[in-house]
Amino acid sequence: MFKGFKNFLMRDDVITVAIGLVVALAFSNLVKAFTDSVINPLVAAAQPDTAGLGLGYQLGAEGNEATFVDLGAFISAIIYFIVFMATIYFFIVLPYKHIQKRRGKAVFGDAPPTKTCPECASEIAAEATKCKFCASPQPAAAA
């Protein structure tokens, strides 16, 4: 039982994913600090009349954080997501694709082209004439 678990852990793709996850989590903290320290103050400055609460709308008493719709936090979260995903793509996915290509493996490639089965309208491979269900012999109807 433990030998199978060891073999699973020692596979190349599991180790690669684990390293990528650690790098992504570490970078996540850096991006979060950037959005909290740089982006949030810039977004909050866009609407200065909110008693220091940032960009948004006050629904209740003036200065009450509980009734403040904070659009600035949402905009910052979107910026955080875009920066984080772009970094993951450019610093983890692209190098990984390059390394795997040099090893002769294709990863994160385009999906193979498909077409529609003329019989049942399901998706099939581009070189196929019918799907596997329409191509198999149909059972005879009971009389």
UniProtKB/TrEMBL annotation:
Q: State the organism of origin.
A: Mycolicibacter kumamotonensis
Q: How does it sit in the membrane?
A: Multi-pass membrane protein
PANTHER family per the UniProt record, alphabetical: LARGE-CONDUCTANCE MECHANOSENSITIVE CHANNEL (PTHR30266:SF2), MECHANOSENSITIVE CHANNEL MSCL (PTHR30266)
Keyword Transmembrane helix listed: yes
Recorded GO cellular component terms are: membrane
Which protein are we looking at? Answer: Mechanosensitive ion channel protein MscL
Q: Where's it found, cell-wise?
A: Membrane
What InterPro entries does the database record attribute to this sequence?
A: MSC/AndL, MscL_channel
Is Acetylation included in the keywords of this UniProt record? no
Q: Which UniProt keywords apply?
A: Membrane, Transmembrane, Transmembrane helix
One Pfam match:
MscL
Please name the Gene3D superfamilies in this protein's record: Large-conductance mechanosensitive channel, MscL, domain 1
